């Protein structure tokens, strides 16, 4: 059985408090206050009133001022207030209603009328509270399902990316490392004048980080004889290897088109829904482009290279240099840093290269934390 509803009666006259309290007690739990200041304390205390009957004409602090202060406090702002007053002027009633009172009852009180007004307002409040709880429960459920869907999506895409890496004798740690490197770069560049606007939306930043593992998805289209060759590739073989960027970009473009055509008309913003795949397409197709235009597959230069791809280029090259591959040994850290410095303004966006050089310690810590084996990492 639910506890009785609480009504706070506020009046500076003891006789009025007694009469109103006697009328309400058979139906509700009644609390009383004989001044505006006491009313504010009682309204904020426990048990919290479900309704306040508030006298207007009180010394020191009148009912209008009490209501203003109640509405100014989050803990009392939603308590319904019925003004009870001897005043019968339309202007006073308008003032009270404008301040947020839900009803207005004049003295002398008519018991049946007051009980009916109180009952009606408490039923309305019960309905509002029920609706508020249901909305909160619905919001929580929607949030839970969104997190669940995001987790399923991330795990599925990570598994897909890992399949591509496995064909290259890589491990999932390469994906963890490059993803973490991209995250470090984003944090370092978030306040940079060139990148502040592009990185202002946390969802955009999250998409770049989550899409990073798909950078080499196009490797699924490269023959094993080339992908797994232990020695140096011939010029012709390297040209075939280079096509993995275009293959990945096109595969994701095809996926976007296919999904877009299946989206129902109305109710779904296709651009927003497919933003993750679009970011993954930028990364897969552009992470081998170079700042000076000498990269592949499109020979893009400067800011024409998508930002996500420019971030990925730094992350991917650093990891490749620091790690042993089936065709090379890991490079010493000093040599890695020398190569990265030389790539500033040539291979890499100069400002992103600077952010990397300022975050080297974090990059090295990540490379060690997610090392495949100690022997496979640069000293």
Protein model, in words:
This protein folds into two domains: 129 residues, Response regulator (Rossmann fold); 209 residues, Hypothetical protein af1432. The protein contains 15 helices and five strands. The C terminus is likely disordered. With 379 residues, it is of the alpha/beta class.
CATH topology of the largest domain: Hypothetical protein af1432
Average pLDDT over all residues: 87
Question: Would you report the number of β strands?
Answer: 5
Read across the widest sheet, the strand sequence of neighbours is 2-1-3-4-5
Which spans have pLDDT < 50 for at least 5 consecutive residues?
266-270, 374-379
CATH superfamily of the largest domain: Hypothetical protein af1432
Order of helices and strands: EHEHEHEHEHHHHHHHHHHH
Largest sheet geometry? 5 strands, parallel
CATH level-1 class of the largest domain: Mainly Alpha
N- to C-terminal distance = 70 Å
In angstroms, what is the radius of gyration? 34 Å
Strand content: 5-15%
Number of helices: 15
């Amino acid at each position: 059985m639910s506890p009785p509803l609480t009504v706070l009666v506020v009046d500076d006259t003891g006789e009025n408090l007694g009469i109103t309290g006697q009328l309400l007690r058979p139906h509700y739990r009644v609390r009383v206050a004989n001044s505006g200041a006491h009313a504010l304390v009682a309204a904020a205390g426990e048990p919290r009133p479900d309704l306040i009957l508030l006298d207007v004409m009180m010394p020191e602090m009148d009912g209008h001022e009490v209501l203003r202060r109640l509405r100014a406090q989050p803990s009392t702002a939603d308590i319904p207030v019925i003004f009870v007053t001897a005043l019968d002027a339309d202007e006073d009633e308008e003032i009270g209603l404008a301040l947020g009172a839900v009803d207005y009852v004049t003295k002398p009180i008519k018991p049946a009328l007051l009980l009916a007004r109180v009952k009606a307002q408490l039923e309305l409040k019960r309905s509002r509270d029920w609706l508020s709880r249901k909305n909160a429960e619905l919001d929580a459920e929607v949030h839970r399902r969104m997190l669940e869907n995001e987790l399923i999506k991330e795990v599925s895409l990570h598994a897909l990316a890992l399949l591509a890496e496995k064909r290259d004798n890589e491990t999932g740690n390469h994906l963890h490392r490059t993803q973490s490197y991209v995250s470090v770069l984003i944090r370092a560049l978030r306040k940079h004048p060139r990148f502040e606007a592009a990185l202002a939306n946390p969802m955009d930043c999250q998409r770049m980080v989550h899409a990073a593992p798909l950078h080499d998805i196009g490797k699924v289209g490269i023959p094993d004889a080339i992908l797994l060759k232990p020695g140096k590739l011939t010029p012709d073989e390297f040209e075939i290897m280079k096509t993995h960027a275009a293959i990945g970009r096109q595969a994701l473009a095809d996926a976007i088109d296919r999904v877009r055509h299946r989206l129902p008309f109305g109710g779904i913003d296709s651009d927003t829904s497919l933003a993750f795949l679009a970011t993954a397409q930028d990364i897969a197709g552009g992470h081998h482009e170079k700042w000076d235009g000498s990269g592949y597959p499109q020979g893009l230069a400067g800011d024409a290279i998508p930002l996500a791809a420019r971030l990925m280029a730094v992350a991917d090259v650093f990891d490749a240099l620091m790690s042993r591959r089936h065709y090379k040994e890991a490079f010493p850290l000093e040599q890695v840093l020398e190569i990265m410095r030389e790539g500033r303004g040539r291979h890499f966006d100069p400002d992103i290269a600077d952010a990397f050089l300022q975050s080297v310690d974090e990059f090295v810590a990540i490379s060690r934390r997610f090392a495949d084996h100690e022997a496979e990492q640069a000293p």
